[in-house]
Amino acid sequence: MSILDMVREAGVIGAGGAGFPTHAKLASKAEYILLNGAECEPLLRVDQQLMRMFPDEIIKGFESAGKLVGANKALIGIKGKHKEVISILRNRIEELQVGDFIEVKEIPDIYPAGDEQVLVHELTGRVVPEMGIPISVGCVVVNAETALNIYHASMGVPVTEKYITVAGDIPKRLTVKVPVGTPVIDVLKLSGIENFDDYTVIDGGPMMGPVKSDVDGYVTKKNKGFVILKKDHPLIRKKSVSIEQAKRVNRSSCEQCRMCTDMCPRYLLGHSTQPHKMMRALNYALKNVEEQKIAQLCCQCNLCELFSCPAGLYPKSANLYFKGKLAEQNIKYKPMKSEFTTRKSREYRLVPSKRLIARLGLHDFDRPAPMTEVQVNPEEVHIATRQHVGAPAVPIVNVGDHVELGQQIGKIPEGSLSAAIHASISGTVVECGNDFIVIRRG
Ligand code: SF4
Ligand code: SF4
């Protein structure tokens, strides 16, 4: 079986949060393969630890990915502040004699360094065009944990576990490996908190992760971290505002200073994203939203809403509002040109992570979350059929079947973009629906 087929069979998807099926990504041809080791979301600590613990596996997985896309060069992007990890990776690249192909490049400690388009620019100097993806400029980007999973796939091992950081205002910060399908509450309780009545959980990083409405749910291959904060933490209050509330506040308070636009990472890359214009447009009862098409260029990094706006308003939400309206009217932005260059002011307007963390009120929680061996042995796992971009996996097991750890239980539907799913524990299938396959241990 080819490596690409092995990656497909192993159900590898983008582990950085996007969940794009990796076999589909690696079917492209590219000049560069880039490893996203930026981990720019504050408090999350998965990738930097994986690169320290499994450098050979990650380098080999990354090399395989690079060969698959036919890349001339493979670049690992990692923040310069992670000196130890950089040194380990450079040593291992030399030892493994892949230095002609793979190189570690240091990137600045800014937010959002891990946004694919920012990473592409920092590593290659190229700018992904508006509405484009990295392949538009000859690049394919894979996350560090994805590279590890590609290596495992090449050894015939499917994705059945997920690394997750548990962080925030909690007694115990840690990073753990748990079976896919584990109840989220089992992971949250590793924080040392038993009763979550006074807490709210962010699913993912504090910048882009949504606030969870409860502590239910099951771990998927996309989870990267849970940030637990007191309910009255300003970040929770800010992130819990509904789009209707945001619209009301936005209308009455925007002073059109355009800081949201001037500091927008996509605007600084040369795109036409201009959230202050979306704020202005909120004041009018517009039937035709054609003019607001630029809202579609927003990547929802949240910088404008959680950092840039001096009035504490919601420009990202204004973008989101118009994105919704544009989708309803089936209007799509069309770029006026295909080549973009960064704005001159970019170098002065990059946002250092430290300042961002302070602004978010997370300084006291910006601590290590060490990788910890824990026994999370859920009695039941709920494995979602859709953990990825594309169509859900189609179950290939039935209620009552006994399955072994690593056995494929859901396949890619014919001709679709999708990813296979596998049993993350050995046991009996007790439910098999369109959304979940439930396995009971034993
Ligand atoms: S949303 Fe905030 S940053 Fe943007 S123009 Fe209005 S006041 Fe200025
Ligand atoms: S969320 Fe705000 S800062 Fe981020 S891309 Fe969108 S408009 Fe720009």
Low-confidence stretches are none
Distance between the termini: 31 Å
Q: Indicate the mean pLDDT.
A: 96
Strand content: 15-25%
CATH class of the largest domain: Alpha Beta
Ligands bound, unique: iron/sulfur cluster
Total strands: the figure is: 17
Helical percent range?
Answer: 25-40%
* Biggest pleated-sheet summary: 4 strands, parallel
Overall number of domains: 4
Query: Which of globular, elongated, flat, extended, rod-shaped describes the shape?
Result: globular
Named CATH architecture of the largest domain: 3-Layer(aba) Sandwich
Find the CATH superfamily of the largest domain. NADH-ubiquinone oxidoreductase 51kDa subunit
Strand order of the largest sheet: 3-2-1-5
Structural class: alpha/beta
What can you see in these coordinates?
The chain is an alpha/beta fold and 442 residues long. The chain has four domains: 3-154, NADH-ubiquinone oxidoreductase 51kDa subunit (Rossmann fold, 3-Layer(aba) Sandwich), CATH 3.40.50.11540; 160-233 and 361-377, Ubiquitin-like (UB roll), CATH 3.10.20.600; 243-351, Orthogonal Bundle (Fumarate Reductase Iron-sulfur Protein, Chain B, domain 2); 379-442, RNA polymerase II/Efflux pump adaptor protein, barrel-sandwich hybrid domain (OB fold (Dihydrolipoamide Acetyltransferase, E2P), Beta Barrel). The protein is 30% helix and 18% strand. It contains 16 helices and 17 strands. It has helices at 3-9, 22-25, 46-53, 55-69, 83-95, 116-124, 144-154, 184-188, 234-239, 243-253, 259-262, 265-268, 275-281, 303-308, 315-328, 353-360; strands at 32-37, 73-79, 102-107, 110-111, 139-143, 161-168, 174-179, 199-203, 225-230, 351-352, 380-384, 394-395, 402-403, 408-411, 421-422, 427-432, 436-441. It has a four-stranded parallel sheet, sandwiched between helices. A four-stranded mixed sheet has the order 7-6-9-8, with no helix packed on it. A four-stranded antiparallel sheet has the order 11-17-16-13, with no helix packed on it. Helix 1 packs across helix 7 (144-154) and helix 10 crosses helix 15 (315-328). It is globular and about 60 Å long. The model has no long low-confidence stretch (mean pLDDT 96). The structure holds iron/sulfur cluster (SF4) (2 copies). The site of one iron/sulfur cluster has 14 residues, from helix 11 and helix 13. Keywords: 4Fe-4S, Electron transport, Iron, Iron-sulfur, Metal-binding, Repeat, Transport. One of its GO terms (molecular function) is metal ion binding.
